[in-house]
Amino acid sequence: MEKFAKVKEVVAAIEADVEKFYNAGNSAAGTRVRKAMQDLKGLAQEIRTEVTEKKNSDK
Hints:
Blueprint: H1 2-24, H2 27-57
């Protein structure tokens, strides 16, 4: 659950940068969004691994 909370934090934190990139054309904001998305990808993979381990250990 801790990592899922972190995912929600990251998404909330980049919301302003997403606005800046898509609505204002701010390229630097786009770079920050891309970095945050890469971080989210890593967090998502960690969550997937944890879920698989928990699922398999319950058998």
